[in-house]
Amino acid sequence: MEMDLSEVKEMEKDEEIDSDLSDSDTEEPEEKILDATSLSALDMILKSLWNISVFVSNLSMDYVQEANQSLTDNESVPLQDILRIFMLNNLSLTHPLEANGVSKLFLNILELIPRWNYHFEVNEVAKTICIRCKTDMAYSGETSYGIIINANSLRVYKSAFKEFTFENIIKASMINVKMLCDKEGCGKRNYVDTMISNLPSAFIVALQWENNETEKEIFDTASVLATEIDISAIYRYVGDSAFTKYRLVSMVWSHGNLYNCVAYENNRWVRHFCSEIEVIGDWDGVLRIFRELHIRPEILFFENAILKDQMFSEQGSED
Prior knowledge:
Blueprint: H1 17-21, H2 36-49, H3 53-67, H4 79-90, H5 102-112, E1 122-129, E2 136-138, E3 142-144, E4 147-150, H6 151-160, H7 166-175, E5 178-180, E6 189-191, E7 193-196, E8 202-208, H8 215-224, E9 228-230, E10 236-237, E11 245-255, E12 258-265, E13 268-273, E14 276-281, H9 283-293, E15 296-304, H10 305-318
Parallel strand pairs: 4-8, 7-10
Antiparallel strand pairs: 1-2, 1-3, 1-7, 5-6, 8-15, 9-11, 11-12, 11-15, 12-13, 13-14
Helix pairs in contact: 6-7, 6-8, 8-9
GO molecular function: cysteine-type deubiquitinase activity
Keywords: Hydrolase, Ubl conjugation pathway
Protein name: Ubiquitin carboxyl-terminal hydrolase family protein
């Protein structure tokens, strides 16, 4: 199942963020009672996005261009705070999130920043050859913003196919989808092959939970996750780029009634919760926290590895 903006409830305002950001420096959000869980989810999503290099770079450049000034000339309000104020003014956060609602909140955020949507877009085309009438079919293309997969499916596939990687399991869940043959008189349901021709700057994987999982089930699910994936192992990539690998840079997980962000910063994993930061260390340390605190990862942010390396290289040369 793909993450699609059509699933997001219609927003009252459909304004681009850049025009509002320049006016948001001195505006505070309206006085309203915000739901603590929803506010926590927003803060941790923004914290996660802030670890995606291309997002920060483009947000900064667009803001500088729109405001016609450098960020250093406007130190009174950090860019992170400007973005947060804008979101508070335009999102409805007065009610608790629905179950597995973090991915929908993320899509609501994307709807408010349409200029940066293309960094997350995956343009998919489903193709198949009917096994009954041998008709070659291509279904109309769709734009998604990542993959949604049931946490239980990860455990089921891993239990049945122990050699499967995280990529293999995502691929298997997609192949399991069937579509009707559109040739008149046939109507056979066929498995489809999903193709993409573009590589998004960032790739999103959202997990859906029942929220009654045992400690072992949570750990077994988390153990399937990977810190690096090859998107060409998930889709049939028909583009011309050889750089199809993505690295996990951050994720949002639920912990009780609040949300945390775990991000890879300064060559180690750290945990952001409320206004505190805890250094975790390596990936095994992350898995240990999953087990000990019964934490459910809900949305994972991967970034194109070569793009991230190039941006770090450019930043280093400027220094």
